[in-house]
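Summary for the funding panel

The consortium committed to producing paired sequence-structure records for every protein in the target list. Below we show the first two records in order, beginning with the earlier of the two.
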Amino acid sequence: MTSGKSAARVYIETVVVATIVALFVRTFLFQAFKIHTGSMERNLLVGDHLLVNRFVLAPAPSRAERLLLPARHARRGDIVVFKFPEQPERDFVKRVVAIAGETVEVRAKRLYINGRPIDEPFVHFLEPPGAPRTADEQTAADVRERYGPVTVPPGHLFVMGDNRDNSEDSRYWGFLPERNVKGRAMLIYWSFAPDGERPGGRARWWLGDTRWERILRPAR
C-alpha cells in the first residue's frame, strides 16, 4: 500500500512539474502562433503554425542580464509577432524593414532605407512594380506605390508584410512600439491547408490536410 501511494505521489509530482515547466516555457520562452491572413505570402501561408521565440527580443534592463542572456533588439529582416497598436488584443506578424533612426521610403513599390534601394528577394507583389497603368488610375495617394520618406523614432520599428500589395502594416497605421513585440518567429512546426485548398470541399482530415513539406521550415 505504501509503495502504491509512493508511485502515485511520484506520478502526480511528475505531472505537476511537467505542467509548471510547460507553463514557464509557454509564458516566457516560446509561443505558438497561427497564420490567419495572406499578408506574409509567399513565405508564411494561411494555416502555418509558428513557434515564436519570446526570449530573444525580451528587454534586459540591467547590464548583468544583457551579458548573461541572449536577448537583443529587433533587427531589420526579423519576422516578429506583436500586439497590434490600435487593438492590442490582436496579434499581427510582419517583417521588420527599418529600426529607430532609419529613414523609410517607397518609390514605385521599391523599398528604400536611408535613400538606398533594398534587395528583398522574399517580397511578393500581386502586381509587379512598373506594371503599366491606365490613365484613370490614381496612384499618388496609394502607399503601396509611394510612401514617405519618414524617419523611425526612438523605441519604434517600421514593419511591412512580405505580400506588399495585400498587407495592413506600418504604411497604414504608423510605427510599431518595440514594447509591443512579443517575439521573433522561429519556424513552422505544423501547417494545414485552408478550406479553399481542399478539392471538392471535402471535410478536414488532420493528416490529409497537413502540408508536410512546410513542417520545421525556418521562418525567414
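The next record, for a separate protein in the list, is shown here:
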Amino acid sequence: MMSEQTVNRPEPLPVYLLLGAYLGVVFVKTEVISWFRIQEMFRFHSFHMYGIIGGAVVVGALGILLIKRAGARSLTGRPIVFPSPQDTRPGPQHWIGGTIFGLGWGLLGACPGPIYALIGTGVWVMFAALLAALSGAWVYGLLRPHLPHG
C-alpha cells in the first residue's frame, strides 16, 4: 500500500533532466537531428532513420511489456497506468492532428523532439521552432475545452 507521503511526493526532475540530456547526445551521435537524414528518409534514399525509428518502436514495445509484467512503478512509487486499446482507437482528431504535426515537421525540416539538441549544437534558428512549438501548445491549451477528445 502506498503511503500518502509517497503519492504527494514530486517526481525527481533532475533524474529526468539527465535522461533527456543523454537522449539529446544520442540524437546528435546517431544523426537523428540531421536535416539531411530526415530528407533521405522522406525520399526513401536511406534506411538509417527507418532503422532508428524501428529500433525505438521495438525498445518501446519491450519496455511497455516489461513494465506491465513487472508491475513497475514510477520513481516516487506511483503506479504506471496504460490506457486500454479501446481508449486509444484513432479518430478524426488524430488524423487531423497527425497531419498538422507532419506538415510542421516537413516545413521545419526537423522532428520537434530534438529541438533542444539542435539548439545545443548551435542551430540557433531552432529557437524559432521552439517558439512555434510552445505557441502551438499554448493555443491547444486554449482550445482544448472546445475540441472533441473522444
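Regarding this second record: Helices lie at 4-8, 13-29, 35-42, 48-70, 92-108, 115-120, 126-143. The chain has a mean pLDDT of 84.
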